[in-house]
Every structure is written in structure tokens, then in C-alpha cells.
Amino acid sequence: MVVFGVITGTSVTKLFIGGAIPGIIFGVGLMIAAYIIAVRRDYPRFGRPSVAQLWKSTVEVFWALLMPVIVLGGIFIGVFTVTEAAAVSAVYCLFAGAFVYKEARQFPEALRGPVEFVMVVASIMILIACAQLYSWLLVVYKLPQILTLAMQSVTSSPWVLLALINVLFLLAGMFIEANAAVILFVPILYPLTQQFGIDSLHLGIVLVFNLCLGLITPPVGLTLSLAAKMADAPLA
Predict the structure, then answer these.
(1) In whole angstroms, what separates CA 139 from the centre of its chain?
(2) CB of 131 within 8 A of CB of 176?
(3) What whole-number distance in Å separates Cα of residue 71 and Cα of residue 75?
(4) Fewest CB atoms less than 10 Å from the CB: which of 22, 46, 78, 92?
């Protein structure tokens, strides 16, 4: 959403808010699918925890669970922007780690991680900078206008165009990393969708959720790989 917002000039805060309800529907839908598959394949089951165990676990992770509530709540209410939310979450993590979970000794080791993370973020920002040049070249060579005329010769319905974009990004998400797909396709498709009167906020949420489906789908499936590692389960 952040990358889409930067490329198109759409409010990232509005994208975050607009993605809340679809995100809940998306998550519940995946849980239902996972449950049905698990029952059909008779996957191993864990024993039901007692009320006391549930309460103990909730108390232990309460301060960690509070962070997304503070961050997302602050964004939705309008207390701070998405960028400011990142700073708030960092300060909150330092506070909770030092005074609640008593893990201050691990700070020096934890500081090594951001160095690697900065390299990842820097590479994405370089790609975004190149995407801006890419967008400029597309405009100079009038590719959006050519695509618009070609698409209008096929259909004049924005719903048909959205359906085609859905299929495109669902397939793209299966084979291309999400940020790369946004950077590659959005500069071409965004002017086309504007000609058809499709709202940029609507478009952004549609693209992101299609790419999210791709992230759990082979052959690439980056989120699938991460889940397999966390669950210590074979990727196959």
C-alpha cells in the first residue's frame, strides 16, 4: 500500500483505513479454507487449552498485542500519520522490551537487524525512484493513451477493466514479488483506470489484496515460505 501510494499519490492513511474491513474478510476467509482443508486431510490436532491457560497466555502477550491496537487506532482516528506511526511503534517496542519483558540486554544484538533492514528498504526505494523515471518514459511515449484507446475498443465498462486487472494481478502475484509487481504494472495501468473513472483508492485495495493472494500461492509464495519456517512445517 505504501509503494502504491508513493507511485500514484494516493493517501497511504486512506489506503490503510480502506483495507481494514476487506482485511478482516480476507483473514476470516483464509481461516475457513484452512479449517476445511485440515478436516478433510485429518491433520493432527492439539488439545483444547483450559480457561486458566488462555488467561495466562493472554496476560503474557498483552503488551505485545497492544502495539497494533495503538498504531492502527492512532492512524484510523487521525492522531498520527502512517510515517509517524512507525516512530510510535518503535518507541513503544523499546519501552515494552525494556520495562515489561525485561529484555534490555538483547538491545545490542537487536540493533544489528536494522542495518540489514535498511539495506532492504534502500533497495525498494531505489526501485521506486526508477519507477518514477519509468512512468515518465511511458507518458512521453504516450503508452497510457494507446492502451486506453485499445481498451475502449474492447469495452467501455470500468467493471470489465477491473475484472481483467484482478486476473492480471492475481497471476502476477504468483510469479513476481509484490513490490516489484506494483512498480512494474501500476505506472501503466493507473492512467488507464483514471480514464475509465476508477477511484485510485478502490484500485489500490483491489491490487493489494490480489497480490496478497499471490503471496500465499506457489510457485513463489513468499508468505507461504515464511509460514512454513515459523510453523516448522515442510514447504511442500
Answers:
(1) 28
(2) no
(3) 6
(4) 46
